[in-house]
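Propose amino acids for all 177 sites.
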């Protein structure tokens, strides 16, 4: 069986970038399982949290949970946070859910494109630990999670500020210094 050199190069690059992180493979796997557990708890907390009137994004980095998106009522925002805190393995919850109508499909597409531009900028910037920073964009607001030094956080923020379309940057880093 012949292996495609392009596939092998992609696999090698993925392993190389994955190995450049401050987190262990175990932490990464834990986060991958934590996100759906938290999302599931939120779904069972209230039916309106999964209805078309709400759009909730759950992100985990090193056991720290980011809740972003929109919901129509403040009590739903609070219920989502309480549900997230109940999940075993959650160290901290940042509740950034906005009380408003859910973002449109076009806004979500723009957010995905903005995230791609941000990651490209970070990758091209020296001093920014690309592999240690998770970028989440919701309604033009950029959330940054990761294990970094304060200097690395400042360099990442400076790089991202140059990307057009960024409405606001919210730093949710865990500092290593």
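Proposal:
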């Amino acid at each position: 069986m012949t292996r495609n050199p392009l596939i092998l190069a992609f696999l090698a690059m993925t392993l190389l970038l994955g190995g450049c992180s401050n987190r262990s493979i175990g932490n990464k796997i834990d986060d991958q399982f934590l996100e759906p557990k938290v999302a599931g708890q939120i779904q069972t907390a209230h039916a309106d949290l999964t209805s078309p009137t709400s759009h909730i994004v759950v992100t985990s980095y090193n056991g720290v949970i980011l809740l972003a998106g929109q919901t129509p009522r403040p009590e739903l925002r609070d219920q989502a946070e309480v549900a997230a805190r109940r999940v075993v393995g959650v160290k901290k919850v940042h509740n950034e859910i906005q009380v408003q109508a859910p973002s449109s499909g076009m806004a979500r597409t723009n957010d995905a494109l903005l995230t791609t531009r941000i990651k490209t900028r970070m990758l091209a910037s020296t001093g920014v630990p690309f592999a240690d920073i998770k970028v989440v964009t919701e309604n033009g607001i950029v959330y940054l999670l990761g294990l970094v030094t304060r200097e690395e956080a400042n360099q990442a923020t400076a790089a991202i500020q140059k990307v057009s379309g960024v409405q606001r940057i919210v730093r949710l880093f865990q500092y290593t210094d």
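The mean pLDDT is 89. The helical segments are 5-18, 25-45, 74-85, 105-124, 150-161.
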